[in-house]
TfoX/Sxy family protein (Nibrella saemangeumensis), 107 residues
Amino acid sequence: MASDQNFVNFVLDQIKNAGVITAKKMFGEYGIYSDEKLFGLICDNKLFVKPTYSGREFIGSVLEAPPYEGAKPSFLIEDKIEDSEWLSELVRISIKELPLPKPKKKK
């Protein structure tokens, strides 16, 4: 089931002061970026954040699940998705540990 655009917009609106937050459609679902750095996915109207050491410490009791079949587990954000300050802080913490995107090869 593809994610609903209203849910994607809601998630993007929740994240503040964590860079330029954008969503790119990928196979009916969405990649979520901060300043072009992929930090999460929205699949089946659920938010998944890439796991990081600091993110795990911040969350505490982490719920992990793969966003799609065959994917590595990510942090599944359910209960706190409506807490804008908490979610924004998780994104800020997480993007510090995630690698920069690889440069695209020129054709």
In short: The domain at 5-97 is CATH 3.30.1460.30 (Yope Regulator; Chain: A,).
